[in-house]
Design brief:
The complex is a heterodimer of chains A (158) and B (336).
Chain A lengths: L1 E4 L2 H13 L6 E5 L6 H11 L14 E4 L5 E5 L22 E5 L13 E8 L2 E12 L2 H13 L5
Parallel strand pairs in A: 2-5, 2-6, 4-5
Antiparallel strand pairs in A: 1-7, 3-4, 6-7
Helix pairs in contact in A: 1-2
Chain B lengths: L4 E6 L5 E7 L3 E8 L2 H5 L6 H23 L8 E7 L3 H18 L3 E5 H12 L7 E6 L4 E8 L2 E7 L5 H11 L6 H10 L23 H15 L6 H26 L4 E5 L6 H14 L2 E3 L3 H4 L4 H13 L17
Parallel strand pairs in B: 1-4, 4-5, 6-9, 9-10
Antiparallel strand pairs in B: 1-2, 2-3, 6-7, 7-8
Classes of the chains: A alpha/beta (158), B alpha/beta (336).
């Protein structure tokens, strides 16, 4: 599915919408260049999960753990190189209960599971002042179903 | 009173460091095995490289710290080590080493919060600091304002909601093609430019609290730079100067306002961004206007170092507050 998001508040609402449909064991990839709004969307999802504490950029720490229900692992691979993901002990988190949200997943490449919800946030004409195009796709049956649910529940007017 | 000599070990990010400090004041040795050259090729700290380098260098650095202090291993009273926050792999190298060292010598272990260590850098050089003090800790991973009411007693009164100040420096420097580390690169470029030629927002959020937000400033800078690349007038020097000015103004005004509210006697700046000259100058100037002395560490103590860890551990030593040998490392700040 594809959406146009015009401001931070709409990005927040998209996050809340996504959160509503999560069962609690999903993997979500977030792609988009610096400043596109990846962390903002994660914050929206966390608000949707009723988590009111801070959701900060994990660029430095590589992973933030949010004690929401279900728990959320917020990764950021921006500073990593290929082949370095293993060091993080990523396998200890993925698929063991809890939601994993991963910024800059393309850096990990083949090391990440293929089945996931993939969210891509694009700038329009390279202009940060303009709206964002958000493209949500799913790999695997579970995530295709999640997209269908999201589409039937989206009231974003486009 | 008997002298207390503490070995400090720091490996939370890209520096492997060891130091020996007596009575929380007298630095007998302070070594940093700088890895900055390795990291420059990658445009940032590469954590995997960092943990591997820590493993390779830690024994060497610790041993050298004893040699320079002219002490034997058994001459120390405790082993202090950073256990939070930082890169988990890197932290574990220092923590495991410290546990083994303490166990082998039969000395107590003291786990130290890295950010408290940064604040302590000020006390290493300025024992005259008075309380209450408002402390601004600014680095690649953190931006926090703390109230310190007595030695070793910290309360966080605000922090960043999104990006840390140093992270914003690094990302904008990379975007502008200025290199790594971003703070010094932006400062250097800013010297050739002028703030105000290009205008960027000062994001204060609520004037009545001490929360920070730098994500919007980062995006605004990138947006303006894209437009300049596409033909709008503007230089990288003016951009660097304006970005630095916008970020520093917010840091300083929030700190000054906290100093007023809590009737602080002193303001302390600490962390990697405390090396920024613009931040030092403006904080000093504004502090003078409200009659509060401003302290910041000398440049070598702004970077990650182990003297600050050994120094801060002296508070815990005096209270008999030691850590169990099964204590863990934590990537994020669990509590103060």
């Amino acid at each position: 599915m594809e959406l146009l998001i015009y401001n931070e508040e709409e990005m927040n609402r998209l996050g809340i919408l996504i959160a509503k449909h999560l069962k609690g064991d999903e993997i979500i990839y977030l792609s988009g260049e610096l400043g596109a709004g990846k962390t903002t969307l994660v914050r929206g999802i966390m608000r949707g999960l009723n988590y009111q504490d801070k959701v900060t950029s994990p660029t430095f720490t590589l992973m933030n753990l949010y004690s929401s229900h279900p728990p959320v692992f917020h990764f950021d691979f921006y500073r990593l190189g290929p082949g370095e993901i293993e060091e993080l002990g990523l396998q200890d988190y993925l698929g063991r209960g809890g939601i994993s949200m991963i910024e800059w997943p393309e850096i990990a490449g083949e090391e990440l599971p293929r089945e996931a919800l993939q969210i891509k946030i694009e700038l329009m004409a390279d202009d940060y002042d303009r709206e964002r195009r958000v493209i949500i796709t799913g790999q695997g049956e579970k995530y295709c179903r999640l997209i269908e649910e999201l589409m039937s529940d989206a009231h974003f007017g486009n | 009173m008997r002298d207390v000599t503490i070995l400090g070990i720091e490996s939370s990010c890209d520096e492997t460091a060891a130091a020996i400090v007596r009575n929380g004041q007298q630095v007998l040795s302070n070594l940093i095995y700088s890895q900055i050259d390795i990291h420059r090729q990658f445009g940032g700290v590469v954590p995997e490289v960092a943990s591997r380098k820590h493993v390779e260098t830690i024994a060497l650095v610790v041993d050298q710290a004893f040699k320079e202090a002219a002490l034997n291993y058994s001459d120390i009273d405790a082993v202090a080590v950073t256990n939070r926050p930082g890169l988990i792999g890197a932290l574990l190298v220092g923590l495991s080493f410290a546990k083994a060292f303490a166990y082998a010598l039969g000395k107590p272990l003291i786990a130290v919060n890295h950010l408290q260590g940064h604040i302590y850098s000020n006390f290493l050089e300025h024992p005259e600091i008075e309380f209450p003090a408002v402390c601004l800790v600014v680095s690649g991973g953190h931006t926090s304002l703390l109230l310190m009411t007595s030695p070793g007693d910290y309360e966080e009164i605000g922090s960043t909601r999104d990006d840390a100040a140093g992270e914003a420096f690094d990302k904008v420097a990379r975007f502008l093609g200025l290199g790594y580390p971003g703070g010094p690169a932006v400062q250097k470029a800013a010297e050739k430019g002028q703030a105000g030629v290009i205008t960027l927002p000062r994001v204060f959020l609520d004037r009545n609290d001490y929360e920070f937000s730098f994500s919007g400033l980062k995006t605004a800078a990138m947006n303006q730079w894209r437009k300049i690349e596409q033909g709008q007038p503007g230089t990288v020097y003016d951009m660097a100067a304006e970005f630095q000015a916008a970020l520093v103004e917010v840091l300083v005004e929030k700190t000054i306002s906290a100093a007023n509210q809590y009737s602080a006697r002193n303001i302390l700046i600490a962390g990697g961004v405390a090396a920024n000259q613009e931040l030092r100058n403006l904080m000093k100037k504004r502090g003078k206007e409200i009659g509060v002395s401003v302290y910041y560490p000398s440049l070598q103590l702004c970077t990650d170092n182990a003297a600050m860890i050994a120094g801060n551990a002296y508070y815990s030593y005096q209270k008999g507050d030691f850590s169990p040998l099964d204590i863990n490392a934590h990537a994020s700040l669990m509590s103060w």
